[in-house]
Amino acid sequence: MTQIVRRSLTGLVYIILLLSAVFLNSNAFDFLFMTFGLACLYEYKRLVQLKGYHVFIAYLLLWWVFIYLIPDQVFLNDKMLLLPLIVLTLIVDFILLGYLFSRKEKFFTKFQKFFIGLFYIGGGCIFLTMIPYKDNSFVQLLIVGIFILIWVNDTFAYLVGSAIGKTKLYAQVSPKKTVEGSIGGLFFSIIAAYIISLYAPTITTNQWIILAIVIVFSGSLGDLVESKFKRVAGVKDSGAILPGHGGMLDRLDSLIFAAPFAYLTLNIFTYVS
Fold first, then answer.
1. Which of 79, 143, 180, 210 is buried most, with the most CB atoms less than 10 Å from its CB?
2. ∠ at Cα 60 (54, 61), nearest 5°?
3. C-alpha 48: how far from chain center
4. Alpha-carbon span 151 to 92, nearest angstrom
5. pLDDT tens-digit profile of 133-166?
């Protein structure tokens, strides 16, 4: 079986699983991403050589508190309850951006690895799960639209980069990514956002386009962050759970990193509208 066939089949199964969970019900979607988060944490632990299982326990506790313990109507009426989680998640993401652009391949302490893993992956997965909940209902097309924007960006960044890419984006971390590819991914994501807005009018066309820009930029940075983890660890992929694609973190790095920024953007839309 050729590599391209393996990648295609794995990608198809992944997409079917994802969309099936989204359109089945909210509980299936929540459970799927809780499981995906555990898989990503496992791969992250291996990349940074974090010993023990404490981060899994902390992640499940965090998930239980913010997804199941506190009723949905409380979040809807008092977003301040989410403030500590969004602040800590964004702080960790900006710490990782500093790590990304640092010339030093510094190694974090055990506690720092634990803290970063909990909020980089745990916080990201929790906010990704919260995104479809709007006005006390589960809006499938909103999260599907975000998935599509990520997939369009990844696909066209690769295609455009392969066709005309010459200028390296960040060769020290990811030698294959190009500026031309990144621009191509952004351009086609904006087109996709316009098309999505015609079929998913949960937010306006302009808001879909702004959301696409936020997701593309933050998702691309998330992809680079994971690439640096892999480069420092001396591995090509974070794992081998997805034949032809590598690990679960390889597949979800953009989504996880972009999720808190997308969630914050959607709440800003609600506040100013």
1. 143
2. 90
3. 19
4. 25
5. 877 788 899 999 999 999 999 989 989 999 998 8
